[in-house]
Amino acid sequence: MEEHYVIISGTNRKESNTAKIASIYQQELEKKNIRADLLSLENLDLSGRNTDYVEIEKKLLLPTAKFIFIVPEYNASFPGVLKTLLDLSDYKNVWWGKKALLTGISSGRSGNVRGMEHLTSILHYLKVVVHPNKLPISGVHKLLDGEAVIRDAPTLRAIDEQLDEFIKF
Q1: Domain count, the chain
Q2: Which residues pair with residue 5 across a beta bridge?
Q3: Mean pLDDT split into 10-residue runs, the chain, 169 residues
Q4: What are phi and psi of 93, to 5 degrees?
Q5: Backbone phi, then psi, for 143, in 5-degree steps?
Q6: pLDDT at 156
Q7: Distance CA 71, CA 137 (A)
Q8: pTM for the complete prediction?
Q9: For residue 27, what are the domain limits?
Q10: How many CB atoms neighbour CB 77 within 10 A?
């Protein structure tokens, strides 16, 4: 049976670099013959457990075995909207015993290392097994060209290796 993957673009900012990186991850998985759904928080109403949220939970979150979080740096951590997504969930059914891969992005030089550690602690509390290869992508605005494509060979190699490891995880 094929494992279900979901890539979570961890911000609700419009036209964000996070969404662009999430799309790149989806394309890279397709090259490896793995279908992954993309969950953008951009237009998602997370004000409560409303019908839209419950539908996303039922169709995307519950059947997923492996989550890939693309997490931007917000105030040395990660966006509150991502925390809200976790808080609203039926956590025992959505998260327990599942696996996650984390990629942090920032325009600065740390690649959101702190935010990934904060998220890792929360995911561990939710009994999610987090892959140890957490990729910090720094200077993301310089890596993305005008077409939302990364042409930096070392970054592409790091993403490729990270995904290969996660597929086997």
Answers
A1: 1
A2: 36, 66
A3: 87 94 96 96 92 94 97 94 96 96 94 96 98 96 84 94 97
A4: -90, -35
A5: -80, -30
A6: 95
A7: 10
A8: 0.96
A9: 5-168
A10: 17
Question: Which positions ≥6 away from 56 have C-beta within 8 Å?
Answer: 39, 44
What is the token pair recorded at 118?
């904060």
39 three-state secondary structure: strand
Alpha helices in the chain (DSSP H): 17-31, 51-56, 80-88, 91-94, 113-125, 140-143, 153-168
> Which tokens belong to 128?
């999610």
> What CATH number did the domain enclosing 51 receive?
3.40.50.360
Q: Residues 78-81: contacts with CB within 8 Å, 24+ apart? A: 78/10, 78/112, 78/115, 78/116, 78/118, 78/119, 79/10, 79/11, 79/12, 79/41, 81/10, 81/11, 81/12, 81/41, 81/44, 81/46
Q: How far apart are CA 53 and CA 46, in angstroms?
A: 7
Closest by CA to 134, choosing from 108, 114, 156, is 114
